[in-house]
């Protein structure tokens, strides 16, 4: 039954993407850029509905009040699943991503991201690429936007040892805006490199922003410490609340370490149900 539900969800997920891109394309490209966000945000909400109804997976967001009121910040979530890419879009006024230049060449998708002024990066250009990215990111943030960046760069299994890249520290140093860490474990329910989807409930915890002014190295150390502490607490809490979940080996290993350290779950404030 679980395999059937996973297959049904995966089928409807991609049909939802294709149909909305086709049916809503005229709406998207006729609307002003910022108002056009209604299309991808609607897609994200319908994906949440599909996952809740078909798979039985729901989530709660804690810490919405930690997002800076002026709307100018870097959002730095853990990255475990494709779910992370779209899940928080409905909570952000006008976000943008830094993405590979090659993605801009994909028909229709490339046009969508170009309209939202996403920032392409040419990885072959190395140092020149980072300078160009910083210039573009500064210009976008000057208009009141939010940059979403995954500090570890790529998807990591829940519980895996952290591998934060220095790029997020350079952006923090040069853009001089707050960085908002986000801890969550969607990878337990939507594992990377797997077609299975698992039912249950998990929490997305938006942490207090790290304000500008630290050195890049001090910032990175603090980002890792605060994000990983919240991730450990949420891992314990999520596994406790979902005892039937099949855990990846990295999560099991991390739980064993935390058990020996006698780490207890953090306080559980009331979140915003989805």
Please characterize this protein's 3D structure:
By secondary structure, the protein is of the alpha/beta class. It folds into 2 domains: 55 residues; 155 residues, no CATH class. 44% of the residues lie in helices and 14% in strands. The protein is built from 9 helices and 8 strands. An 8-stranded mixed beta sheet has the order 4-3-5-2-6-7-1-8. Helix 1 runs antiparallel to helix 3 and helix 7 crosses helix 8. It holds the Pfam family Acyltransferase. Keywords: Acyltransferase, Membrane, Transferase, Transmembrane, Transmembrane helix. One of its GO terms (molecular function) is 1-acylglycerol-3-phosphate O-acyltransferase activity. This is Acyl-phosphate glycerol 3-phosphate acyltransferase.
Distance between the termini: 25 Å
How many alpha or pi helices? Answer: 9
β-strand amount: 5-15%
Strand arrangement, largest sheet?
A: 4-3-5-2-6-7-1-8
- Our count of domains comes out at 2
Secondary-structure-based class equals: alpha/beta
| Residue-averaged pLDDT | 92
**Can you write the helix and strand succession as a string?**
HHHEEHEHEHEHEEHHE
Helix content: 40-55%
Count of individual beta strands: 8
C-alpha Rg (nearest Å): 19 Å
Strand count, sense and barrel status of the largest sheet are: 8 strands, mixed
| Poorly predicted parts | 263-274
- Which of globular, elongated, flat, extended, rod-shaped describes the shape? globular
Pfam families: Acyltransferase
GO biological process, one term: phosphatidic acid biosynthetic process
Keywords: Acyltransferase, Membrane, Transferase, Transmembrane, Transmembrane helix
Protein name: Acyl-phosphate glycerol 3-phosphate acyltransferase
């Amino acid at each position: 039954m679980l395999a059937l539900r996973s297959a049904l969800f995966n089928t409807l997920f991609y049909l939802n993407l294709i149909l909305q891109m086709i049916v809503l394309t005229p709406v998207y490209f006729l609307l002003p850029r910022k108002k056009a966000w209604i299309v991808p945000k609607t897609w994200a909400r319908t994906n949440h509905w599909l996952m809740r109804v078909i798979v039985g997976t729901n989530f709660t967001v804690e810490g919405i009040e930690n997002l800076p009121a002026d709307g100018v910040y870097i959002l730095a979530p853990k990255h475990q699943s494709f779910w992370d890419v779209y899940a928080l879009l409905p909570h952000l006024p006008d976000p943008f991503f830094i993405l590979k230049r090659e993605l801009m060449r994909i028909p229709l998708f490339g046009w969508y991201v170009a309209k939202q002024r996403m920032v392409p990066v040419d990885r072959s250009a190395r140092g020149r690429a980072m300078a160009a990215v910083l210039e573009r990111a500064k210009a976008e943030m000057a208009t009141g936007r939010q940059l979403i960046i995954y500090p570890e760069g790529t998807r990591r299994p829940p519980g895996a040892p952290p591998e934060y890249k220095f790029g997020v520290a350079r952006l923090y140093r040069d853009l001089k805006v707050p960085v908002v860490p986000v801890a969550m474990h969607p990878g337990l329910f939507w594992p990377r490199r797997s077609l299975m989807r698992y039912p249950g409930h998990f929490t997305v915890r938006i942490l207090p922003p790290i304000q500008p002014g630290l050195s890049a190295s001090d910032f990175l150390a603090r980002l890792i410490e605060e994000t990983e502490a919240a991730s450990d607490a949420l891992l314990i809490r999520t596994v406790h609340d979902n005892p039937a979940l099949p855990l990846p080996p990295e999560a099991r290993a991390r739980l064993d370490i935390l058990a020996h350290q006698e780490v207890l779950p953090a306080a559980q404030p009331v979140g915003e149900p989805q």
